[in-house]
Design goal:
CATH topology of one domain: Immunoglobulin-like
Distance between the termini: 70 Å
CATH class of one domain: Mainly Beta
Structural class: mainly beta
CATH architecture of one domain: Sandwich
Number of helices: 4
Shape: globular
Length: 749
């Protein structure tokens, strides 16, 4: 092992100083300080008019009632020219009757041929094309809301938002309808949202918070009816306008029953699969105007898209996100003590500051999976989520069946939060896992999240686990604690977090990759918008990050110091350049590649890695992205490359391919990994879609394919046809294959 040199602190500080000084001399542009945003919201009042006749959702706005409704217009830019009028007018009217609230939209556009529609799929990518968005703060508490988005071809996106975006549940599925059409002067949209879809108070006269957003992608422009500073987005409902005049409406019970039937056939070289048929049921019941009770029986997730594979070059577990709808819906309410992590940089070259994956106390992906990642059948479960008064509540209980070496078990989660001050909350979480026999695992924690002055966030959390003594090691504490602060204004973005996790902290229902550590993480960034370069340059963002992880006795485990500068152009393209000096102190050998038998010996290592990234305009018919890194790596060297291309055609076809390569040279050996990911999505219409995910991984020596066809044959009712296959990449031999057909049918009362 080569001798260890001192950290190149002088070079790091010099580089950081150069990055920050690169923009100090440049004045800001687009800072419209003349707008008083709190005053502006008070002037944005929109009356809703009760419709005298039926409203047909056809995108025409030709019913006489639309002409009687007052109009919301005069949208104001937040980006690129904050405080300036939007470059195109947008007109919004609101009607309602006993069952629905209606929004009529006309988005003026002098160049309708330039309107970009990226996708037809449900929950489309809003930022890659033109769209119109609504947020409804139905309790008018200035912190929570429902979000709806559409594009010019009628694709839909919806979400629940909590605490002004600290949690956004994009997997919430609402009952609503929309029709859109493009004309010579812009595009129309007509939207109907049933009142039973929403939760609101039972008063005879309703006053809601409301705001509208218009995105014109070819200009990379965002504008709002109730204006917002560019550092905020539509979720900032404390600056939303007001929707008035709703009288005599009720949310309704919103009872939904969704049974499913499924048939499957498959083959595998490891276990017997054969043919199977099954059925199950999901039920949703609106207990009160704020609480929803869900039930699931014989739960199935066979239609869920496969994970995108990753190559692990660390000594810790990789994080894979939850994708199953039942667990994603209302999942934000179970978030605990994480604050709101921030991704600095862009184009794949940034780094994430915050504790999103340091200690996730409740990680639903652990449900239905064994310790060796095998699927465990779920017998059923129930969930109660929502709010009553100043409280938010979440209760979840899932029963897992036994399979092979995994015992039958029950997982229960309780989350309670109370709103305090203007936009803050305090909370409690209790988790319990009981398996057949004497094994159990319990977690209790409390947290608090505070916001001051609109842009300063503070959070703190503590928790403790309880397990049989034989399950955990004999050293260390069973407790953890963390705290963080985040500040952002137009120029500065600063964040610092500290987490301390005991050596016996054992959370079997969460994701905690390291225990017995103390971690400090901080990021310091400053944004520049040079006025004299504003025709092509939108923002320059140099930022410095410091992450230090030590054992609880104070000995260093890891340290990363990242000095990066990212650049964003006016068309949405951009890139980043950076260096990451790293220290790793190994007290045990690190098996970096078990299949090849390559390990890194005990020792203290210091190395630098340089990286550069670039991405072209993602909304263009063809776009490219790339990343290159090179530098020392433990007792050797690493070179990594990735390149990708995407194609978008007429809003129907979206295809992309990405190839990443790691060339590792160590004293114990050298090897190369390749990972190719290809994705194809085609929208036949807004109710029929096909997609394919193909992956090639030389490290796992596998080809995998996941093909899915989805038809929405009735409101919130689907037919899925899914084909999965894995093959050995060396021999092309079949490892396993499965074909699944599944149909659901939702009945609403």
């Amino acid at each position: 092992m080569r001798p260890v040199e001192a950290l190149p602190g002088v070079r790091i500080l010099s580089a950081a100083a150069l990055f920050f000084a690169s923009g100090v001399m440049w004045p800001l542009s687009g800072d419209a300080g003349q707008i008083d945003y709190k005053l502006a919201r008070l002037e944005r009042n929109l009356p809703a008019v009760r419709a005298a006749g039926p409203i047909r959702i056809d995108g025409s706005l030709d019913e006489p009632d639309w002409a009687r409704a007052p109009m919301a217009r005069a949208f104001i830019q937040s980006d690129p020219q904050e405080g300036e009028p939007a470059t195109e007018d947008t007109e919004v009217r609101v009607l309602y009757d006993a069952t629905n609230i209606y929004f009529g939209v006309f988005a003026h556009d002098r160049e309708p041929h330039g309107i970009l529609t990226s996708e037809l799929a449900k929950d489309f990518n809003r930022e890659s094309g033109d769209d119109f968005e609504i947020i409804l703060d139905t309790f008018h508490d200035e912190r929570n809301g429902y979000m709806f988005a559409i594009n010019a071809h009628g694709a839909k996106w919806d979400a629940q938002m909590i605490n002004e975006g600290r949690e956004v549940n994009e997997n919430w599925d609402a009952l609503w309808d929309v029709k859109a059409r493009i004309v010579e002067t812009g595009w129309y949209a007509e939207i109907a949202i049933p009142f039973r879809t929403l939760r609101f108070s039972s008063g005879d006269e309703q006053t809601w918070g409301v705001n509208f957003q218009r995105r014109i992608r070819r200009r990379n422009e965002d504008s709002f009816w109730a204006p917002l500073p560019r550092i905020y987005d539509l979720q900032r409902v404390s600056l939303a306008g007001t929707l008035e005049g709703l009288q005599g409406v009720r949310p309704g019970n919103d009872i939904r029953v969704k049974p499913y039937v499924l048939g499957s056939a498959g083959t595998s070289t490891r276990v017997a699969v054969g043919r199977d048929a099954t059925a199950g049921l999901d039920v949703k019941y609106g207990v009160t105007s704020g609480l929803t009770w869900d039930f699931t029986v014989n739960t199935d997730f066979s239609q869920v898209e496969a994970d995108e594979q990753q190559v692990n070059l660390t000594r810790f577990s990789l994080f894979f996100p939850e994708k199953r709808d039942f667990f994603l819906e209302n999942s934000g309410i179970f978030q605990f003590g994480q604050g709101r992590g921030v991704v600095f940089g862009g184009g794949g070259g940034g780094f994430t500051s915050g504790r999103q994956t340091d200690a996730i106390l409740f990680f639903s992906r652990r449900i239905g999976l064994s310790e060796n990642a095998e699927s465990i059948p779920i017998a059923g479960g129930t969930r109660l989520t929502g709010r009553f008064g100043a409280y938010s509540v979440g209760v979840l209980s899932i029963q897992q069946r036994s399979k092979n070496t995994s015992l039958a078990s029950n997982v229960t989660a309780l989350r309670l939060r109370r709103n305090v001050l203007a936009n803050s909350d305090v909370g409690l979480i209790v988790l319990n896992k009981e398996a057949d026999g004497p094994r159990y695992n319990r977690v209790v924690g409390t947290d608090a999240n505070f916001r001051f002055f609109g842009n300063l966030d503070l959070n703190v959390a503590v928790a403790r686990t309880f397990s049989p003594a034989a399950v955990t090691s004999s050293n260390g504490s069973e407790s953890m604690g963390n705290g963080g602060v985040h500040y952002r204004d137009r120029r500065w973005e600063l964040q610092g977090t500290y987490a301390r996790i005991g050596g016996r902290f054992n959370d079997e229902m969460g994701f905690v990759p390291r225990t017995g550590i103390a971690k400090f993480d901080s990021t310091y960034g400053v944004r520049f918008r040079p006025r004299h370069l504003s025709k092509w340059l939108r923002e320059l963002f140099p930022h410095l990050g410091v992450t230090n992880v030590s054992w609880l006795n104070g000995d260093l485990q890891s340290r990363l110091i990242g000095a990066h500068t990212s650049i964003n152009l006016q068309d949405g393209s951009g890139g980043e350049l950076g260096v990451d000096p790293t220290t790793e102190n190994l007290i045990a050998p690190f098996a970096i590649n078990r299949r090849r038998g390559i390990s890194i010996p005990v020792g203290r290592y210091q190395f630098n890695e340089w990286h550069t990234t670039w991405r072209t305009n993602a909304s263009a018919p063809v776009s490219l992205n790339g990343r290159a890194t090179a530098g020392e790596f433990y007792d050797g060297y690493k070179q990594s490359y990735s390149i990708g291309a995407a194609v978008r055609l007429r809003g129907r076809l979206n295809a992309s391919i990405n190839e990443s390569r790691n060339q590792i040279r160590l004293r114990a050996g050298q090897y190369t990994t390749d990972l190719i990911t290809a994705r194809v999505e085609y929208g036949f219409s807004t109710i029929a879609f096909a997609n394919a995910l193909l992956q090639y991984n030389t490290d796992a020596r596998e080809w995998t394919s996941n093909l899915r066809f989805n038809l929405i044959h009735h409101r919130l009712s689907d037919f899925f046809l899914v084909f999965n296959e894995r093959r050995d990449s060396n021999t092309a031999g079949l490892l396993d294959r499965a074909l699944v057909a599944k149909m659901t049918y939702m009945v609403a009362f």
